[in-house]
Write a structure and sequence with these properties.
Elements lengths: L1 H8 L3 E2 L2 E2 L2 H27 L4 H12 L4 H4 L1 H7 L7 H23 L3 H7 L1 H25 L13 H11 L5 H10 L6 H27 L14 H33 L4 H21 L3 H13 L6 H23 L11 H25 L4 H11 L3 H13 L5 H25 L17 E3 L6 H13 L6 H14 L3 E2 L3 E2 L2 E4 L6 E11 L9 E10 L3 H14 L3 H9 L3 H11 L6 H9 L1
Parallel strand pairs: 3-7, 5-8, 6-8
Antiparallel strand pairs: 1-2, 4-5, 7-8
């Protein structure tokens, strides 16, 4: 009986031989070490204000041949065997593959095609030039330097595939990293933030389609083209057909199914299971076609994520599960098979980093300028789009596994991806820094504050706030409402902790205007954390003052940053008390006592 249970626990044959009891023990210890150290160092990195992926990759470096393998070769081999035919090695690689597949599902869920199309000309210009210029620079670099840059064993037979990959690697954008940077800078809900995010979405979509083509161009396909031996044109044609069907018929079908799933299946488990099943089916199909499974998962994420029936809270739950369990294992695994000391080439690192950063920033800057953004906004878009982060690292690691690049080039891509991600936020903050520092209460009068409005739905609330705004500026309520609703329909403006910032730029407005609404019962803005919005700030700015919107969004986020402030505003009995709470919340050192006395009076 015990032998039968052990055989069952081993999961049957792996690589022609069953996992033995000691191998199961080693597998569980290896996964525990990878996940535990990656999460620990990821949290340390986050606490230092750096992206978690930095600590997660460091965990792999410590557990890999760079540190652990050098200190204890026997211990490293026991935990992470280098023999490709070892059942333990195959089991570990299988879990890592699953981690990469689910991680690309999450990246795909972030791509909202509806948001992309609504951005129109500005998004197309930024995405097109922000992709084309660094791609051409990378393609030219690979064509000229060739082997000196780090071609893998398969790249020798397909130099075009290698050159296309380098172009893609230097032009891809990390949507999750950019979204996090914009949230940290209180720019995620601004028009500038929306332009950057939508451009990054299109950039990601084009980049992963391009990478699928690269894989098809490799001789014998990737990993023997899943053993099917399809020709290049057949593989590319079938992949494009799959992409087209998933983004049209498949997207429509998933959109129709989502309400039924969410109404009748358990939340969040049932909905998550449905999303994962669709992703795994698509991943299996693209793997069968000779394209890596991650592409199928990415396309499935795009198709599912585009449905407005998928609540932000559900999307966030899936993202939290994958990014905190599977993503750390994947990023830590990068350092398991590479000696980062031996593979570090300062010349390759310098070339890759400089070409990637210069090409991306200048390309996106040019696109933003052609879209008639200000010079300051254009530089912010350029540096925001330059962040590669996790996406660039995933791309590089998959290319190395496919035999397309060497360890040296992968190390350079990892350093480039991390470097651009660390640089983007501080540079954007410096570029967008406004002049005099104002505070939210200074922009408000009692008539600009609605305490417990009659509205119970989002459209009704925006209409009521637009009517109040029309009483304060020489504009009618209907065009104000239409502009605000159009912006809200393009992308929800909900923030965590019961906050929302609907906004619009209006012609004919001479100066910025704020209208606050305190809704004790809450209004559904489809917030990522599932909370109803109780403090809503309508921001209206002149269409020729783009910096004003960014400044006001930052002021709102700063004023309502603390839970105590949000609770005291909920308890305020009058508009004057509401303003007094905000006044105290943003007091400078030494002002608190005077402001408290004034508030009491």
């Amino acid at each position: 009986m015990m032998d039968w249970m052990l055989t069952l626990g081993a999961g049957g044959d792996v690589g022609g031989a069953p996992l033995q009891v000691n191998e199961i023990t080693r597998l569980l210890l290896a996964l525990a070490a990878l996940l535990g150290l990656a999460r620990l160092l990821g949290e340390v990195s986050r606490g230092l204000g750096q992206p978690a992926v930095l600590g997660e990759i460091l965990a792999g470096v410590l557990l890999g041949p760079t540190v652990f393998g050098a200190m204890s070769p026997g211990g490293y081999e026991w935990l992470f065997p280098t023999d490709g035919g070892s059942p333990l090695r195959i089991a570990e690689e299988g879990f890592i593959l699953m981690s990469a597949t689910l991680l690309l599902l999450v990246v795909g869920l972030e791509v909202d095609l509806s948001t992309v199309w609504r951005q129109g000309r500005a998004m197309l210009l930024v995405a097109a030039l922000g992709t084309a210029i660094p791609f051409v620079a990378g393609f030219s670099l690979a064509s000229v330097l060739g082997d000196a840059l780090g071609t893998g064993e398969r790249a020798a037979a397909s130099p075009t595939a290698f050159a296309v990959f380098v172009g893609l690697a230097l032009s891809i954008t990390a949507l999750p990293v950019i979204a996090k940077i914009l949230m940290d800078l209180n720019l995620a809900k601004s028009d500038l933030g929306m332009l950057v995010i939508s451009s990054a979405m299109l950039n990601d979509l084009v980049g992963w389609i391009g990478f699928a083509v690269v894989l098809a161009l490799l001789p014998a396909g990737v990993e023997a083209a899943s053993g099917e031996g399809y020709g290049v044109m057949t593989t590319i044609g079938a992949t494009l057909l799959f992409l087209g069907l998933m983004l049209t018929v498949g997207r429509w079908l998933l959109h129709r199914l989502m309400p039924y799933i969410q109404a009748n299946w358990s939340w969040p488990g049932g909905v998550m299971a449905f999303v994962f099943v669709v992703a795994l089916l698509c991943a299996a199909l693209t793997e069968h076609l000779g394209i890596h499974s991650i592409f199928g998962a990415f396309v499935a994420g795009v198709a599912i994520g585009d449905s407005y029936h998928l609540r932000e809270r559900t999307r966030d739950t899936i993202s939290q599960f994958v990014t905190n369990i599977f993503a750390p294992v994947f990023f830590a695994s990068i350092g398991l098979r590479i000696n980062f000391v031996d593979a570090f080439d300062p010349v390759i690192v310098g070339i890759v980093l400089s070409v990637a950063l210069t090409g991306k920033v200048l390309g996106c800057f040019a696109g933003a300028k052609l879209a008639r953004l200000t010079t300051r906004e254009s530089w912010a878009v350029g540096f925001g789009m330059a962040a590669q982060g996790a996406v660039g690292i995933i791309l590089g690691n998959l290319a190395r596994q496919a035999g397309l690049i060497t360890d040296e080039l992968l190390v350079a891509i990892v350093i480039m991806a991390l470097g651009t991600s660390l640089l983007s936020g501080p540079v954007m903050q410096k570029v967008l820094r406004t002049g005099g520092k104002r505070r939210l209460h200074e922009m408000l009068a009692d008539r600009q504050i609605l305490l417990d409005p009659k509205a119970r739905t989002l459209p009704d609330l925006l209409r009521e706030m637009s009517e109040r705004a029309s009483e304060l500026v020489p504009l009618k309520s209907e065009p104000i409402y239409n502009a605000v609703w159009a912006r809200e329909s393009a992308m929800h403006t909900a923030l965590p902790h019961g906050l929302a910032v609907p906004h619009a730029r209006l012609a004919g407005l001479s100066k910025p205007l704020l209208v606050m609404a305190r809704c004790r019962d809450g209004i559904d803005f489809d917030s990522p954390d599932g909370e109803l919005a109780r403090h809503v700030c309508l921001i209206l700015t002149p269409d020729d003052q783009p910096a004003a919107q960014i400044e006001l969004l930052g002021m709102f986020a700063e004023a309502f940053n603390e839970s105590e402030t949000r609770q005291r505003c909920l308890a305020a009995g009058t508009a004057t008390e509401y303003r007094a709470v905000l006044h105290l919340a943003t007091a400078k050192p030494g002002e608190e006592l005077a402001q408290h006395d004034q508030a009491v009076l």
